[in-house]
Amino acid sequence: MSLSKKNPTNQKSWSSLEKLYNQENNLHINDYFKSEKNRLEKFTASFDDLYVDFSKNRISKEAFDLLIELCKETDLKENIDKYFNGSTINETENRSVLHTALRSKNNDSTEISEEVKNTLSKIRTISDEINNGVRVGHSGEKIENVVNIGIGGSHLGPEMVTEALSFYSQGIKPYFISNIDPDYTENLLKSLNPDTTIFIIVSKTFTTIETLENARKVRKWFVKNVNEESIKNHFIAVSNNTEDPKEFGIESKNILSIPEWVGGRFSLWGSVGLIISICIGSKNFDDFLSGAREMDLHFKETPFEKNIPVVLALVSIWYNNFYKCETEAILAYNQFLGKLPDYLQQASMESNGKSIDREGNKVDYQTGTIIWGSTGTNAQHAFFQLMHQGTKLIPADFIAFKEPLFDDIEQHKILTANFLAQTNALLAGNIKSGNEIQKNIDGNKPSNTILINKLTPNNLGSLIAMYESKIFVVGSILNIYSFDQWGVELGKSIAKQILNNGKSKLDESSSKTYDRLQ
Ligand code: F6P
Q1: CB neighbours (10 Å) of residue 51?
Q2: I need a labelling partner for 313 at 20 to 30 A (CA). Which of 241, 260, 349, 397 fits?
Q3: How far is 182 from 127, CA to CA, in rounded Å?
Q4: Catalytic pick among 34, 37, 190, 381
């Protein structure tokens, strides 16, 4: 069963939203607070350790009700069921989308359930053995470093999470080789001791040129510094292609599978997350999966009005399709979450950067937004000026944690005071006139507040799953296919052509640049 195919702009709620937008777009968020009784009650939602306040948005209660209506008119409930039950919702690649099964306890299909259990048990065994010093290097020394060789979904999630949860580190140091830049790889290798380093080659296809070239380079370096025989102790492969890694010299027991039904950008919950489990330990990895599973249940079962991924998706659609905002900023007041915007860029932009709808028509409305961001307070001293006084309207998610990880409560208070100050300042502004006009700040700038008790593996799992489901809801309502990436595939195939045939098929200007590169 496929997702329903309903053009959102043909729905009654959409026309009503357009009318409402024309009537209300000059209003100030403060007007809504004044005129709407219990606004906060309606515009907040909580789940376990997460509290989401989306009241500081240019959305009236009436607009919100219409957005909820839009969910119903576009069959969101039915589509969510198909997302979880393994329907072939990635129609253009003829696949189901079941990364949620990687963290689920009761999978409907026993086959899938077995595969998930086996992979999880392999992840646990490998990470426990490395951390307990049972799995050692060829010379008997304890493993100290683990290097993930992979790109895109085979890199961004694992890197973001190992950094975000580095407080929970069990001692093994993570490194990442993703880009095909030889200088970076060689520079990293210079600093590594091959006797105490494990390499994980992560590629769903095992054909991605960046990953394979880097893996070959690392293999060569390893053989030169150690020997060919020891590859079996130091190399692990994570792939859907279980044959090619064997040719590379990797033993079957060190090959972990990525099922066909897991998309690269949503794959960190399974074997792609091996480096995460090694770094934070298998117990913490379990908690990370549990957090995601709990968020999935919330998403599946909560009425739309209080369903966190749904309301965040609706806020996004409102600004993207009615206010015509082009971007969304992700601003975590936590330095460990520095890589969250990069991760969400791929998850969201590779998913919803589409312009053909599910019926094969070119869309005449906006789809995926540009995701960007940084950490607070650093971002305050970089680009917040434009958010406060510039001409662009930038919807933003402000993420903060109530408790610090260590015990410096006082400094943490300064961090959270800044977080609160910014959402407040964006909303309130500071009205000036006359010779102080340059200091005028209109306010009325939107933000979502996402407040989480503490940065734990469990809460991070919930946060990531929340964004994954938000991405799904946006794609579902906007009637696009969120789980393919044909645009990226085009670039890959042209690069291959250039490497095989030179400039013969290039356009005039690219061909000129080609000459200069020679
Ligand atoms: O960037 C395109 C893409 O296909 C992503 O979807 C994927 O995560 C990445 O390339 C890496 O692919 P693979 O895991 O097959 O090497």
Answers
A1: 16
A2: 260
A3: 29
A4: 381
* Alpha-carbon distances, residue 494 vs 501, 504, 510 (angstroms): 10, 11, 11
Q: In sequence order, what E strands does 13-135 have?
A: 44-47, 50-53
Is there a catalytic annotation at residue 350? yes
Strand partners, 142: 136
Give residue 86 CA to ligand 1 midpoint distance, Å.
21
Pocket test for ligand 1, best of 351, 485, 489, 490 (most atoms within 8 A of CB): 485
Residue 206 Cα to ligand 1 middle (Å): 10
Atom of ligand 1 nearest to the CA of 208: 16
What is the 87 CA–ligand 1 centroid distance (Å)? 22
Give pLDDT, residue 105.
84
- Residue of 99, 148, 151 best suited for mutating to test ligand 1, as the one with most atoms within 8 Å of CB: 151
Residues whose CB falls within 8 Å of the CB of residue 41, separated by 6 or more in sequence, listed in order? none
d(CA 329, CA 310): 18
pLDDT digits (tens, 9 = 90+) for 103-149: 998 766 778 889 999 999 999 999 999 999 999 999 999 999 999 99
What are the pLDDT digits (tens) for 384-433?
999 999 999 999 999 999 999 999 999 999 999 999 999 999 999 999 99
Nearest to 399 by CA among 473, 513, 312: 312
Is 492 among the residues known to form the active site? yes
Indicate the SS3 state at residue 50.
strand
What domains does the chain contain, in order, with CATH numbers?
Answer: 8-96+302-484 (3.40.50.10490), 105-285 (3.40.50.10490), 488-517 (no CATH)
CA-wise closest residue to 23 among 53, 55, 66: 66
The residue whose CA has the least distance to atom 10 of ligand 1 is: 152
Strand partners, 52: 45, 450
* Total residues found in the chain within this entry: 518
Spacing of C-alpha 2 from chain mean position:
24
- Whether the CB-CB separation of 276 and 168 falls below 8 Å is answered with no
**DSSP result, 388-419:** HHSS----EEEEEESS-SSS-HHHHHHHHHHH
Active site residue 99: no
